[in-house]
Amino acid sequence: MTITITAFEKSPDRGRGLARDMRVRWALEEVGEPYEVRLLSFQAMKKPAHLALQPFGQIPSYEEGDLALFESGAIVLHIAERYPGLLPGDANGRARAIAWIFAAVATMEPVVIEREMARIFERSESWFDARLPLLEKRIRTRLGELSAHLGDADWLDGGFSAGDLEMVSVLLRLKGSDLLAEHPNLTAYLARGEARPAYQRAFAAQLAVFTAASGE
């Protein structure tokens, strides 16, 4: 059965690997499963055909035979459970890896996204300068906790897992920031994730879409 995912026809992140189809691409590259990509315009994302797959009109969606999924975290978890390579073999290790998937998308990512949205949409508001330090304090708290857990380890819990894939994907949103630079072990952790051959293949594939769409 051919796996088909959806992605932006022209990504607003300019091919930097931040759009959430990147996480699905990466997961599929890690497990060695081929896939096809259906590119969508912002208008097409709101049409009935896509809304039947993704009720909120976002990307990515995932189709495999008679299965259709949405939400990148759920898709990555499905891939990790269906194909070997992204979850440990023992039951307890698998459970912990799955917990880290949820930690990335439910604990770490919301505070990072809140800061991003404020910087994009609220910068001209009178209260922006007062609010930004509060948002960054929340991120610093979470990064400090993550840094303390990781310590000198390469990955969050033993070998690389889907939990690391999701956490690295979240930290990419802070790449080059002073917030991340305060924790050298997290900077190194991010670099290890980016250096994985599967990540490199996924990144190149997503960047190629943007480059072709923009004529760069």
TrEMBL record:
Domain of life: Bacteria
GO MF annotations in UniProt: transferase activity
Key words of the record: Transferase
Domain GST N-terminal, residue spans: 8-87
InterPro entries: Glutathione-S-Trfase_C_sf, Glutathione_S-Trfase, Glutathione_S-Trfase_N, Thioredoxin-like_sf
Entry annotated with the keyword Transferase: yes
Pfam families registered for this protein in UniProt: GST_N
Protein name: Glutathione S-transferase family protein
